[in-house]
UniProtKB/TrEMBL annotation:
Species this chain originates from: Rhodanobacter glycinis
Name of this protein: Dihydrolipoyl dehydrogenase
EC number(s) recorded for this UniProt protein: 1.8.1.4
UniProt keywords, alphabetically: Cytoplasm, Disulfide bond, FAD, Flavoprotein, NAD, Nucleotide-binding, Oxidoreductase, Redox-active center
Name of the gene: lpdA
Active site: 451
Residues annotated as binding FAD: 58, 122, 319, 325-328
Domain FAD/NAD(P)-binding positions: 5-334
Length: 474
């Protein structure tokens, strides 16, 4: 058996590597066990996020946006480009280079912080021991005072549309399509479906998105979702709501789909099918039977408000536990657990976690929606402001969307902020800070915002809560 560690983290994704680095910073002898294999066949830290999720998808979104701008946005600036083409080898290669840069960066951070890496599948045994099965099949056991389970999540596979890596693909497959398909079907109008559907739509694919639920982006504020849906339609994304897939069969001429909607059974043939119906906690084979760690009915590790499993010295964070499957949520949980282990005051405020969808326009929000507050019987007031009245947005030719702020009707405390428009993935941070410090809409209304900037939309929305926006009739 190897030397005993203070902390062993199973999983080298966002939650896991943040936990390990913070633990090492606090003087704890730390190790990480991770089984992810990169595109080049070598072990790669960073989990889904860095390898086949957050980072590579944003790289493709940015590249596809540049191409889309050539024909759709630059002419308005007096700039014209004829016969623009995409070299797919370079297009995908740029994404791969960025991924390698960041996974290599995590590896370097581990070396700097003297974190020991074990590559293989980790399994928690009784007594805080971890069995590691290497990619070569060899096994070894290490132990620690504390074990942090950060095993992440995997795509949900439909029984009648199983992934084959070529015709029916998951998010990883959609990042490596080597030729723009004429038609692409997407199952699920969530974050992954919208982002990756947007990538290939911008490059010329005819994209049809089938969403089983009757409402578009039901987790977002209804006003914001309505604007986003309208803009996606203008871009050519064909989003069919209340459309439930029943069958997907691969034939010579493509993937044949059978789905039902309000008008009955429908058929559709696409060149490729991306199944993006969500993700599930990846806890398969993670726990020996006698560890005492419990799973809920969705396969997630059961933890308390401090991410503790109830078993002495065993913690769990990230996608494998309750809460939103967001990388930044995992970041904070991982660091908080490391601090709790070291006897410090870790902190995660789940009420102010921002959500972002990196489409064009971007969508971002934090806090409660108007519907949630109405259902809870909380008195509230709202203020909205359009980017069409923001000078910087108009100058950028991206004057689409709005900022909506919701405050308590009596205390004026900000309860939620919802945005759709240019750069809102960055603008939401100001609102999260205000909410974290229990700020009011008046606080934001009285803060000087630079002119001309997109942030003025936040300022004006705050003013609009009390019907005193300057550049909008209240």
């Amino acid at each position: 058996m190897s030397d005993k560690f203070d902390v062993i983290v199973i999983g080298g994704g966002p939650a896991g590597y943040h936990a390990a680095i913070r633990a090492a910073q606090l003087g704890l002898k730390s190790a990480v066990v991770d089984a992810f294999i990169g595109k080049d066949g070598k072990a790669a830290l960073g989990g889904t996020c860095l390898n086949v999720g957050c980072i590579p998808s944003k790289a493709l979104l940015d590249s596809s946006k540049q191409f889309f701008n050539l024909s759709h946005n630059l002419p308005a600036h007096g700039i014209s480009v004829e016969n623009a083409k995409v070299d797919m080898t370079t297009f995908i290669g740029r994404k791969d280079k960025i991924v390698k840069q960041f996974t290599g960066g995590v590896d370097q951070l581990f070396k700097v912080n003297k974190i020991v890496s074990f590559f293989g599948k980790g399994k928690l045994l009784k007594g805080n021991e971890v069995e590691i099965t290497g990619n070569d099949g060899k096994k070894q056991t290490i132990s620690a005072t504390n074990v942090i389970l950060a095993s992440g999540s995997v795509p949900i596979e439909l029984p009648f549309a199983k992934f084959d890596g070529k015709n029916i693909i998951d998010n990883a497959g959609a990042l490596d399509i080597d030729k723009v398909p004429k038609t692409l079907g997407v199952i699920g109008a969530g974050v992954i479906g919208l982002e990756l559907g947007s990538v290939w739509n911008r490059l010329g694919a005819q994209v049809t998105i089938l969403e089983a639920l009757p409402d578009f982006l039901g987790t977002a504020d209804a006003d914001i979702a309505k604007v986003a849906q309208r803009e996606f339609k203008k871009q050519g994304l064909d989003i069919k709501l209340g459309a439930k897939l029943g069958k997907a069969e691969v034939k010579k001429d493509g993937v044949h789909l059978v789905y039902t909607d309000k008008d009955g059974e429908q058929k559709l043939v696409v060149d490729k099918l991306l199944v993006a119906v969500g993700r599930r906690a990846y806890t398969d084979g993670l726990l020996a039977d006698d560890t005492g760690v419990k799973l809920d009915d969705r396969g997630r590790i059961i933890v308390d408000e401090h991410c503790h499993t109830g078993v002495d010295g065993v913690w769990a964070v990230g996608d494998a536990v309750r809460g939103p499957m967001l990388a930044h949520k995992g970041f904070e949980e991982g660091m908080a657990v490391a601090e709790w282990i070291a006897g410090k005051a870790g902190h995660v405020n789940y009420d102010t976690i921002p959500w972002v969808i990196y489409t064009e326009p971007e969508i971002a929000w934090a806090g409660k929606t108007e519907k949630q507050l109405k259902d809870e019987g909380v008195p509230y007031k709202t203020g909205s402001f359009p980017f069409a009245a923001i000078g910087r947005a108009v100058a950028m030719n991206e004057a689409i969307g709005q900022v909506k702020m919701i405050a308590h009707a009596e205390t004026d405390r900000i309860l939620g902020v919802h945005m759709v428009g240019p750069g809102v993935s960055e603008l939401i941070a100001e609102c999260v800070v205000a909410m974290e410090f229990k700020g009011s809409s008046e606080d934001l209304a009285r803060i000087v915002h630079a002119h001309p900037t997109l942030s003025e939309a936040v300022h004006e929305a705050a003013l609009a809560v009390d019907k005193r926006a300057i550049h909008k009739g209240n």
